[in-house]
Design goal:
With 114 residues, the protein is mostly beta strands. Helices cover 0% and strands 48% of the residues.
Amino acid sequence: MAYDTGPRIVMDAWGVTRVPLAENARPGDPVIYHSGWDKADNDSTPATLFCVEGGLAGETVHVAAGMVIDGFAGTQGGVIYFGDNGAYAESGTKICGRMLTATLGVVGASMIPV
């Protein structure tokens, strides 16, 4: 399973565009539009985009429909779930990705639960 353990490095991203942030975010944070582009979590509607770069509220940053992130600690093939406040978790109700290796995970808006 995947743990969101610390700094994230975005290794690859696809479906990249730019949006203005409504709150501070760091690379890899899942975001969704409410009254602005906010961090998504396990309690909200699943994220629609993922931050390629970090930024402060009001800044326009690159976001992607999916990405490969280095910085997890988990088991190859494990499921990645949305956690709290832009984090990822080893369990939850909303699946957003899979572990590719013990430290690399792929997340995306269109990840299909398995």
